[in-house]
Structure formats: structure tokens, C-alpha cells
Amino acid sequence: MSLLAETLSMSTATGCGSDSTGPVAGKERPRIPEGDYVAVCYRTRSVKSFGGRRKLMFYFRIVEGDQAGVELEMYCNYPSGRITKSHKLHRQWALAIGRFPSKGDKFAQNVFRGKMCRVLVRDAMPPFPDGTPVPEFLRYSVVDTIKEVLIGVPEHE
Fold first, then answer.
1. Which terminus in the chain has less CB density within 10 A, N or C?
2. pLDDT tens digit string along 48-61?
3. What is the CATH number of the domain that holds 100?
């Protein structure tokens, strides 16, 4: 038996084949062309990243154009202390409330929910640890930033 055939035989015998009873793959992350889109933020939540840092996740649904219905995420560092002007979250918060937050303003995640925004979508291309880019099929789209909060609802709704 060749080394390849033996290896393939072992992987099937150890549960690595299609009949495995192990964990199931999650849903595939969508990939759309980079650029500006109109989207609604329908959910936010705080999560911890692998390094233990808090992140604020924003969930957006594209509402116009060929990509309408596609759901994407945006991530911001979510400090436990003050949100300073150097934080991406500070800029997004200012856009959501229409002004710079004043000293002492309390941040609330719900200021984003239900807002229709012009967002910038980019490819997420986390490289391998040695810096080598990942193959195309492993790339996915994320909302990079909120560019503008739009007032009103689209005419077609």
C-alpha cells in the first residue's frame, strides 16, 4: 500500500471522513465586491476575542443594489474604560449620534440598531502566521467602517 493510500485510509478510519460525528462547519461567510453599500445595522453585541480583548460586533444587512439581503459584520475594539478619539468605536459612535460625544456621555450599543448607513465593505484577508496571504476561497467580506448615517428609509420600502 502506498503512503498516500495508507494516510487516506487512516484519516477515514479515525473519523476525518465525511461520516464524522465531530463538530459541524458553521455558515460560510459571504464575499461581495469591495465598495460602498447602503445597509441597516440590525444587531450589536459584545464578545471577547481570542486574545481576551472585548470587541463590539455590528451586524449589517445590505438593503440596496445587487447585494441586497447579504449580511456582514463589523468589529471594533470595545474598551472597558474610556472610548477616546483614537478608537474606531469613537468615530462610529459620533456618526450614530450626529455629533462628537461629550465628556461624560455614556455609550449605549443600541444607538446603532435600526440605523441605515452608508458603509465601506472590504475583504478580510487574515494572513497565515508567516505573513503569507490566504487563498481566495478563504477570504470573506466585512464592513470596514460606517461612512455616513442616512436619514429616512429607502423609497422602495
1. C
2. 877 888 999 999 99
3. 2.40.50
